[in-house]
Amino acid sequence: MDLDKFKVHGEPLIYGAMVSIALATIGILVGLTYFKKWGYLWREWLTTVDHKKIGVMYILAALLMLFRGGVDAMMMRLQTAAPEMKFLDAQHYNEVFTTHGLIMILFMAMPFIIGLMNVIIPLQIGARDVAFPRLNAVSFWLFFMGAMLLNISFVIGGSPDAGWSAYFPLASLEFSPTVGNNYYSLALQISGIGTLITGVNFIVTILKMRAPGMKLMKMPMFTWSVLITNVIIVFAFPVLTVALALMMFDRLFGSQFFTMANGGMDMLWANLFWVWGHPEVYIVILPAFGIYSEIIATFSKKNLYGYTSMVFSMLIISLLSFLVWAHHFYTMGQGAMVNSFFSITTMAIAVPTGVKIFNWLFTLRKGRITFTTPMLYTLAFIPIFTIGGVTGVMLAMASADYQYHNTMFLVAHFHYVLIPGAVFAVIAGFHYWFPKVFGFRLNERLGKHSFWWIVISFNVTFFPLFFLGLMGMTRRTYTYSEESGFGPLNMLSFVGAVGLAIGFLLLVYNIYWSTRYMPRDTTSDPWDGRTLEWATHSPMPIYNFAIVPTVQTRDALWSAKQDNIPLYDDKKITKIHMPSNTGKPFILGVIFFILGFSLVFSLWIPAILSGIGVIVMLAFMSFDRDHGYYISAEEVIATEKKLKRGETV
Amino acid sequence: MKIDASKPLEYSTEENSNKIFGFWVFLGAEIPLFATLFTVYFVMVNRFASGPSASELFKIGPVLIETFLLLSSSFTIGLAIHAMRHGYKKAMMVFMAITLLMGLGFIGIEIDEFFTYVHEGATLQTSGFLSSLFVLLGTHGAHVSFGFLWGAGIMIQLWRHGITPATANKAFIFSLFWHFLDVVWIFIFSFVYLKGLM
Amino acid sequence: MMKQLFPIRHVMGYLASLVLSAAALIVIYGDLSSGANMAVLLITALIQASLQLFVFMHIGESADSKKELYINIAYALFVGLVTIFGTLFIFVWGWYS
């Protein structure tokens, strides 16, 4: 076997990363052994099927990936900060922008959102868990192993380097001979399967497990947004699955899908990628809309304005999101008729989105607004996202797009959409729901400091890119000459990036500080919330609700507090059925990881063995006859008493 | 677990009916999956480069046998579910066994067909058309093969535990899967083979 | 017992799908225009698919999720058809020439 292909050569930076990864791994292993935490880790986390813990693990993984993607971003901004920089060479710059995009979209934004929905959705609909708790654990471990597979590409074999969209023919074996794009196809495939399972799971959970009385049109807006998001996931991800499989066939087995000869069609990749890719944008943005809707209603002390139109605009967005994909490649060679069609559908999306913006503004109108940290992010989101949306309509015009296409203008546009539309939202949601999960709030003063750093630095970083794009700077160029005149604005952008890094470090420091010093919240309802998740204790017991609540109005808890509409019909506590923990999803994830790794390096024998391993694991799971256990009524009553006294259980 | 006696066994608990509903949603995801494979095939069908074209490659004989086997197996798995609802364990097992055997026959013929193609020099690497053909047929065939293993596993559980809410639920979900594979095959039969031979 | 084992509706569905598959063969043995051939394929395939869906898979049998199942299938077909015809629109019918 040729060991050489496992090695990554060249940069002191990479050697440094290898050493630090090795040291960190050893540190974790030694730490776990020294503090005797292996059993705890296995019992409480690796085998858990509890939606709250799975959600927390998703969010932890997402924060880790935010750090990794953020370092990539800093490296890119540093490399382009001045003309003729020698920090990274072209190849490493390619790898860095590729992994930055992949990680931020697929391994940061999506898991962060899936994490929040894992924690919150069952609580918000008054359910004890998701519909299929074990499949939920499978989802998480497949996502996690996919993410790890992509991350080790950095030090074993080389990262993907053809952009996060991996256009052919560049991504073909001929032009990208390293294993980088094998990692791309397999890591995304594995985590994509996990995401698809999440989609199925949450559709069933939301449609079938709502508290009695919670009709569809009485669901909280976050639940609605998550439902629609999961519908998009279920119908869009199979397209990615196929595209990635074809890519794998091309690269590993010499098929002719996207090749330049023998009837292959390189542009078909771009087409399939964006058939999935555009709905993907809405997969990360719609839940954000839901989070903002909750936060605006809570901190304006008002019902959400235009509930019905909010729901319908999301439904329309979900349908339209499947009809616009060709706007990502107007310049590819299709005729004017095609471009006109996709131009119009793209602009049409601005209408339902505009409806939502106005609904938020009308919710704010005459509200009693409190400027908490999550509310600040929400208020910053509205104007910044609007800039992103308006520049999107500019890009949507096919004829004008011939000028903007693949310039920094585009880069600025999608950061103006995705950062307020996804990152601000998950940070806001993180601040908002943090006390629900941990029983104390994050410090507001530190939170606001990091907010101002992030929001100002964001604009300093990305606003100059609009002008760089209009000046003609193309995206993904690793350096430029002094005469181009791109220098000053790029330097300004780098300064902004440093500010963003400070903002995020403050956020992390806030988590640390608050964990140590923030007073414990005894009310379980620190924000004077409106929806059911605030009706149980913080942190919530494993069974979520001792008695399943009954819902009569949209903001069930608010009505209970304001108008004394009772939340519980039945005061009697009965035994509660719970799913038992299982290690099988984790083991399945590990086998998938081995399978992916073997395929990346074309190691056929381990690949076949682990493929059989997957089937065997599935059979084990099918033959499993463990149908969970019951928590007795007495135990529930005892737990409730303890929780009411403010003790932890 | 609460058992609702008014419903068929496979729907009788909340968990069971959620599983059936969830599987339908999953089948909903399979539709765009196969639609994408068809998309690729339709774009590639005339891009056969120096290899054979569809009309040169296809022979109707084996395709008709495959179609008959799959249609009949879809019929027998339906009969198995009817037998299950009447509580006839033995009849159900027999119908399931027939179903799986016909599935096995289908896979055998498909593999033989692939060998013939490769023998004629029509491989995955030959042309865009053949790549898309092999992957479309192969994905369907892989589903059938997976279904064979899955169905066999369910038969073992039925044989061990009889028709219970849990096994009935599994068998019913399996039948949905098997019928769905037949639906996909109908489209392969019509728009790959017949259209190619037209 | 035979009636319970071989419900008439089910047997008829099976026979119908066999007949429809045979009828579709007209596109290779008959002498129709290619447009008519495509129409034959579409009609026979669609009827057969619906037979599976309604007769064999009992899509309408569960009262509490019937509506959701229909929406699910409709949405899936929407995405599938948009993918197929949108791609053909881009690469075949609408390609710049």
From TrEMBL, chain A:
InterPro entries: Cyt_c_oxase-like_su1_dom, Cyt_c_oxase-like_su1_sf, Cyt_C_Oxase_1, Cyt_c_Oxase_su1_BS, QoxB. It is a multi-pass membrane protein. Residues 36-552 form the Cytochrome oxidase subunit I profile domain. It is found in: Cell membrane. Its cofactor is ferriheme a; Cu cation. Pathway: Energy metabolism; oxidative phosphorylation. Gene3D superfamilies: Cytochrome c oxidase-like, subunit I domain. PROSITE patterns: COX1, COX1_CUB. Signal peptide: none annotated. Its EC number is 1.10.3.-. Its main location: membrane. It catalyses: 2 a quinol + O2 = 2 a quinone + 2 H2O. It holds the Pfam family COX1. Heme A3. Binds a copper B center. Keywords: Cell membrane, Copper, Electron transport, Heme, Hydrogen ion transport, Ion transport, Iron, Membrane, Metal-binding, Oxidoreductase, Respiratory chain, Transmembrane, Transmembrane helix, Transport. The chain crosses the membrane at residues 12-35, 56-76, 96-123, 135-156, 183-207, 227-249, 269-292, 304-328, 340-362, 374-398, 410-430, 451-471, 491-512, 587-620. Belongs to the heme-copper respiratory oxidase family. Catalyzes quinol oxidation with the concomitant reduction of oxygen to water. This is Quinol oxidase subunit 1. It comes from Paenibacillus phytohabitans.
TrEMBL record, chain B:
It catalyses: 2 a quinol + O2 = 2 a quinone + 2 H2O. GO terms for molecular function: cytochrome-c oxidase activity; oxidoreductase activity. PROSITE patterns: COX3. One of its GO terms (cellular component) is plasma membrane. Keywords: Cell membrane, Membrane, Oxidoreductase, Transmembrane, Transmembrane helix. Its EC number is 1.10.3.-. It is a multi-pass membrane protein. Residues 1-197 form the Heme-copper oxidase subunit III family profile domain. It is found in: Cell membrane. The chain crosses the membrane at residues 21-43, 63-84, 91-109, 129-159, 171-194. InterPro entries: Cyt_c/ubiquinol_Oxase_su3, Cyt_c_oxidase-like_su3, Cyt_c_oxidase_su3-like_sf, Cyt_c_oxidase_su3_a-hlx, QoxC, Ubiquinol_oxase_su3_dom. Gene3D superfamilies: Cytochrome c oxidase, subunit III, four-helix bundle. It holds the Pfam family COX3. Catalyzes quinol oxidation with the concomitant reduction of oxygen to water. NCBIfam families: QoxC (TIGR02897). Belongs to the cytochrome c oxidase subunit 3 family. This is Quinol oxidase subunit 3.
TrEMBL record, chain C:
Its EC number is 1.10.3.-. It is found in: Cell membrane. It is an enzyme of class 1 (oxidoreductase). InterPro entries: Cyt_c_oxidase_su4_prok, Cytochrome_c_oxidase_bac_sub4, QoxD. The chain crosses the membrane at residues 12-30, 36-57, 69-96. One of its GO terms (biological process) is aerobic electron transport chain. GO terms for molecular function: cytochrome bo3 ubiquinol oxidase activity; oxidoreductase activity, acting on diphenols and related substances as donors, oxygen as acceptor; proton transmembrane transporter activity. It catalyses: 2 a quinol + O2 = 2 a quinone + 2 H2O. It is a multi-pass membrane protein. It comes from the Bacteria. Keywords: Cell membrane, Membrane, Oxidoreductase, Transmembrane, Transmembrane helix. One of its GO terms (cellular component) is cytochrome o ubiquinol oxidase complex. Catalyzes quinol oxidation with the concomitant reduction of oxygen to water. Belongs to the cytochrome c oxidase bacterial subunit 4 family. This is Quinol oxidase subunit 4. The lineage of its organism: Bacteria, Bacillati, Bacillota, Bacilli, Bacillales.
